[in-house]
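Below sits the subject:
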Amino acid sequence: MALGNLLVDLRPLRRSVPFRRLWAGNSISGIGSAMAAFTVTWLVWSRTHSAAAVGAIGLAQLVPMIVFTLLGGHWADRYDRRTLIVAVRWAQLAAAAAMTVTALTTTHAVWGFYLLIAVESALVSISQPVTQAFVATLLDGELRSAALALNHTAGQVTVLLGPLAAGLLLAAAGPGWALVFNTLSFSAALYGVFGLPRHDASGTSDAKEQSRADAPSPLAQIAAGIRFVTRTPIVAALLLADLNATVLAMPVALFPVLNAERFGGSPTTLGLLAPALGLGGVLAGFLSGRITRARRQGLVMVVASAVWGLGIMGAGLVPGLPAVLALLAVTGAADVASVVSRASIIQAVTPDGYRGRVSALDFLVGAGGPKLGDLRAGFVAQATSGWFSMAIGGAVSAVLAVVIAGAVPALRRYRAG
């Protein structure tokens, strides 16, 4: 196999100027957002020294995410997507600036952080399905899969670099500079979306047909998107497979428990576990050419989901740190293969008039599943142990990945194009 076919496919960046600008802007603002998230978590902890206060950040994000993801998908299918995403980026810049001012002008209160976290969560939840739908309209075929791989790889890089950069800035200059960078980074995000073409999904034949069949209220339109998923077995199977992997085999919440049980609770060891998962994802992203060029993307997704589960199971069972880190890196790589192939199939089989709402459901499953997975993992670990919770969750997830593929032949037989 030629090396060029193995490495990440950069053709979308060369062939589509709007996508190149969108990708660059989102990548820069993604690093800023990761830095801000790390900094705000540190600020809440330093001001309250309460684990419950830190945990409440997740609650402040969850409720707006559920509501505005569904609304964002509806709006993406009803209004001009370019106008919508430009408005969201301006609002994100304003919210980031307000977060910076709040951090610099208050010394003890944290309620303002929660309010702005909720606002930022709502805006991200609107922007995600709109951005995903735009990628599908700008590119198709292999280029669409490659574009999704580039987006996911950039996301993995920001997860690694954002907290590291924020930590260094916190130590050197305090929390203000990280938040200032986040605010400025949305200038890049605005640059990225201003180059997008106008795209009014409500004018497509799919949307017109759907509008005649359904009431025009947002709730009815959202329900129509859900009905599309339920009557399209391959899309329903893909979302179910993602829930299976994240709810049953999400390991992050178990890292502190596993570290205490196996490795003496060393902070240094704990600091290696999550980066191992991310490093595997980054490496797979850079070597994603074979994934995005694969014809049998359904089979790639099924195998990657099973490998994810088996890797998590193995990480719970093996005793040595090097073996655990290696298995976590493998699962991180499997996650990239699964996410990219799943997103490629969903965008390919979804008519444009439904893309916003289906992308919203995809994002909601991908973002909400891990939170439910953390809850499951914690309860099982409390009743048994961290290693058992990780091992049994991974094993069941791997088995169910095969069961889902067996129950939906369209998934395992799907071929790109």
